[in-house]
Amino acid sequence: EEQDRLLCDQPDQPQNPKVLRIAIIGAPNAGKSTLSNQLLGRKVFPVSKKVHTTRCKAQGVVTCEDTQLIILDTPGLTSPFKAKRHKLDEAMLTDPWDSMKRADLVLVLVDVSDHWTRNCLSEEVLKCLSQFPQIPSVLVLNKVDLVKKKFILLELVTELTEGIVNGKKLEVKSAFKHNSSSSAKSLQIIQASPPESRAPESHCLQETAQAPEGSRLDNSSDTRASESSLVTEAAQGPKHYGPGDLKNMKGWPYFQEIFMLAALRGEEVDTLKRYLLMQAKPGPWEFHSGVLTSQSPQEICDNIIREKILEYLPLEVPYGVIQVTEMWEEGPSGELLIVQNLLVPRKSHMMMLIGRGGNVISRIAQEAGQDLMNAFLCEVRLKLKVEMRS
């Protein structure tokens, strides 16, 4: 009731409000929901190591003084073939595109710990960017703490940006020492002639130190002539790309900024948050300052339980589980009483979900209950039942 009231209330905006709508896109499991939770300061979006944990677009709201950031956490961009394989709703294909239509800024998240996908942007991401060239985009390299050889990040930056950021050719140098920690700050990048509008405290494209031998990625003189035309083209703004053009592209030469962070550990997330607050433009707020997410409490509950099911069940099994809430009541002491029925299609799936002696379902209920208490800031008693789907 409190959440419904806040969502219906008129925004309590100040005299000169500012707002920024941010779409976070990327491949499945890049860490979009983890980053969203860190920006919000509380876990309201489900997170799992398995792909397609986020099933629909959901909004998070960060209100800071006169500025409101609206975070559009979206499902990972996927193909129709993969959507069919994971029994995904049609919304999984359309929601990221719908979010882009509403966005003032897009964050493209790349998991740099994934050796198979980190060297190029997926065709779905490039297609999304090319369809909305008027929306400013920012490249965010996530999970940099898991990359031991930091020079790899230098190469990734060059590949994922086509060597150009904000219309300027990158002069990429290493700023880490051999004994540096694996933090997000251990690598810095500069641009040749960086724009004056760049945020002075931003850690994304500045501050170089003495580079170790062989770590500088300056281009040789014989390639600079062809690159100069690409830089000029990038400065003029994105052109229209056809399907054939995108197949030959590995990166996007129109990013305005690059950020390197470790969302799970919260490293450099505050730097990104400050940047986003600075990008906000004058405009009316959409939500009351007390709103943290547009999701209903029931949606948050379903998502958190599904997150745990994905975590503990193997392969494709959890994608066939249907959740039905049987009870949602307030107890005599103000605690929240929740009973949810988990319907599975096969007896073997039911046995896996219950576990030997009920240990799996008990662990899911315990961990989900703790997350729900952290989300709702009240006592939660959660009971889960498992049944065969008729």
From TrEMBL:
Biased composition (Basic and acidic residues): 215-225
UniProtKB keywords: GTP-binding, Membrane, Mitochondrion, Mitochondrion inner membrane, Nucleotide-binding, Ribosome biogenesis, RNA-binding, rRNA-binding, Transit peptide
GO molecular function, one term: rRNA binding
InterPro entries listed in its UniProt record: G_ERA_dom, GTP-bd, GTPase_Era-like, KH_dom-like_a/b, KH_dom_type_2, P-loop_NTPase, Small_GTP-bd
GO biological process: ribosomal small subunit assembly
Chain segments carrying region G1: 26-33
Subcellular location: Mitochondrion inner membrane; Mitochondrion matrix
UniProt-listed PROSITE patterns: G_ERA
GO cellular component, one term: mitochondrial matrix
Region annotated G3, chain positions: 73-76
Protein's UniProt keywords contain Transit peptide: yes
Region (Disordered): 187-243
CDD domains: Era, KH-II_Era
Membrane topology: Peripheral membrane protein
Segments of this protein annotated with the region G4: 142-145
Residues covered by the Era-type G domain: 18-283
G5: annotated segments: 261-263
Sequence similarity: Belongs to the TRAFAC class TrmE-Era-EngA-EngB-Septin-like GTPase superfamily. Era GTPase family.
Function: Probable GTPase that plays a role in the mitochondrial ribosomal small subunit assembly. Specifically binds the 12S mitochondrial rRNA (12S mt-rRNA) to a 33 nucleotide section delineating the 3' terminal stem-loop region. May act as a chaperone that protects the 12S mt-rRNA on the 28S mitoribosomal subunit during ribosomal small subunit assembly.
Protein name in UniProt: GTPase Era, mitochondrial
Originating species: Grus americana (Whooping crane)
